[in-house]
Structures are given as C-alpha cells and as structure tokens.
Amino acid sequence: MRARMPTEPKLLEPPSCRPFATECNALLPGMEDGVGRYRRDCQVESYILNSRMQCSKLIRDLHFITRPLSREEEDYPLAFIVTVHKELELFVRLLRAIYAPHNVYCIHVDNKASSQYKAAVLKLVSCFENTFLSSRSETVTYGGFSRLQADFNCMRDLAASRVGWRKVVNLCGQDFPVKSNLELVRYMRSKEWRDRNMTPGVKQPASMRHRTQLRHREITGSHVALMGAGLKKGPPPHNLQVYFGTAYYALTRDFVDFVLRSPIARDLLEWSKDTFSPDEHYWVTLSHIKDLPWIIDRNSMFANKFESDTFPEALDCLEQWHRTKVLNQATVSIEPSWLLATQSNSSRGYFNDTAGA
C-alpha cells in the first residue's frame, strides 16, 4: 500500500530558486504545461554554516527523510562509505538522497579540504546518530594508495559499528543514486546477489599491467609518478591473479571481515602500496579469490562525478526524479518536509496525480 503525498501549497511570492529545466518534464510524472517546479532549498551551504541553527531545524529544512519508509528496508540495513573533499552542496544532496535512519554512514573528509568545508561536514554529520566521520583522514591523491586507504579506514570503523548492516557501498561526494534505497535492498537481496559482492572487473588486460608491474610513488596531494626509470615490482603475493575493474563496489559483511582479518588480504594491501590506482584492482582481486562473481556494468545503482558548474540542471532533474520514486514507494505517511520541490502556479500538490490512495 502506497502512502498519499501531502499537498504542497501554492507559492505566495516569486521563488528564489531556479526552476527545473523543461527537459525534466519527461522524467517527472504529473507535470502540466505552464506549471513550473522550483527547488525548495537553494542555499544549502548557508543553512549548514549558520552555527546557531539547531539540528532539528537543519534536518527539516534540508528535507531529510527521518523515518524508515518500509519494514523491508529496515530489516536490511546498508552501510555507506562516502569520500569527500569539495562541492559541499553536492555532498549534502547525495547524503539526503541515500539517507535512511536504519542505515549507517562513514564520511571520509580529505585532509586537504578547507577548514570551513570540514566544519560544515562535521556540523551536518553530528546531527545524525548513524552518521560519523572516519576516525582517520588521508590526504587523498588521484591514482594513489591514499584513495584505497581512505576506504579502508571507514571499513574498519564500520566493522565496529553496532548497526547490523548487511552490505557496504562506497561513493564519492559527487555521485548520485539512480535506485531508491528500497530498490537497492531488493537488488542486493535478489537470488543473484544475496551472498555475493558486486565488484565489476576482468582479468587485468595487458594495456593495464604497467600499473602493477612497475613501482610508483605518491606525491602527497598532487600526483602519482613512476619510481626511477621504471623499476619493476615483484609478483603479487600468494600467486594471486590480478583483476582490474572499478573502484566502486557493494561488499558483503562477511567479505569485509575477511578483508580486515585475512593475511592474504593484508599482504595484497601491502604489495599494492606502490602500484597505480590500487583501488581498481584490490577489491576485485580479493573478490575472485573468495570465488565470488562480479557484475559488468548493467542495471546501474549510482551515477558518478557530478560538477556543480557543469549543467547543474541535470542533477536537479535526477534528484527530483529520485525523491519522487522514493516517496512513491513508501509504505508510511509522508512528511511535508520530505518534498524537495514546490509548484509555482497551482494550489495542487505536484505529487497528487501520482500517489496511491
């Protein structure tokens, strides 16, 4: 049984937020010609940086969903690792999209982020009992071991969490979900993936072997360079077959326990320290030695790497489409503060046409 959406009142004054692009019409149900929708929050950073604002008001004004939307989701909590260093508004919109009170979230803030950015993230995270900063922060370098270490730090913290999460998903602060939390849960509980990792990859192709056959060094916070004139590395430990794939994953809790405790995993981690972009081979290689299959990019769960100054309307559309889907799937009553947009010239709520009785 779907919940009925609350009616959003007509705007009494011209909206200050930018309207959704007309291209959104095809994605958002119930749109009428001549009816504009506007985001309800266009000053996210000022909301958070206002040190006098109480958490209860901040959570409400930023439209976070504060109750489980279904028993099915509540019974299958997820863990999330989010690495961030810039674009505060995009991070807030990502966290709002994936947040559920029964899940748990570890946020890794890059050491090189500004003090103001760190303070803003800390203020937001401190408002939630199930969201915390990583106990150890890295200065992350693109292509360096520090990126893998940042995930590892959060993974250790999550392993000690009292939340009985079933799988962990890693993201960066500029990603955005395509699936709702309910769809993620159903996908991960499906027969195909119930007890399996999602670590896309293939046997390391010849064109990528230089990443693990030559030694590299990380110039902290800058770049990764070859050591010397191309010093060769020794073979991977335990005669492992190296696989190559994406740095993104969804891992079972049993697998995470294996990664944190196994000498094989520890030896591969040590061997990977002078490779290039080790996060693109570490997880998928370990997943294969556990005889767990992988998935080639299909039925995507998240869209990656948004930029606030590059067609921001695209994220506006995706965010509204995602929230509409999330609320339409809810089996509980919907709070008015959970709505992300408002309608400009009609007294009818924009969800009324799509909500079930």
UniProtKB/TrEMBL annotation:
Entry-linked InterPro entries: Glyco_trans_14
UniProt protein name: Beta-1,3-galactosyl-O-glycosyl-glycoprotein beta-1,6-N-acetylglucosaminyltransferase 7
Main location: Golgi
Pathway named in the protein's UniProt entry: Protein modification; protein glycosylation
Alphabetical UniProt keywords: Glycoprotein, Glycosyltransferase, Membrane, Signal-anchor, Transferase, Transmembrane, Transmembrane helix
Protein's membrane topology: Single-pass type II membrane protein
Protein localization: Golgi apparatus membrane
Family designation: Belongs to the glycosyltransferase 14 family.
TM regions (residue ranges): none
Organism: Liparis tanakae (Tanaka's snailfish)
GO cellular component, one term: Golgi membrane
Entry GO MF terms: acetylglucosaminyltransferase activity
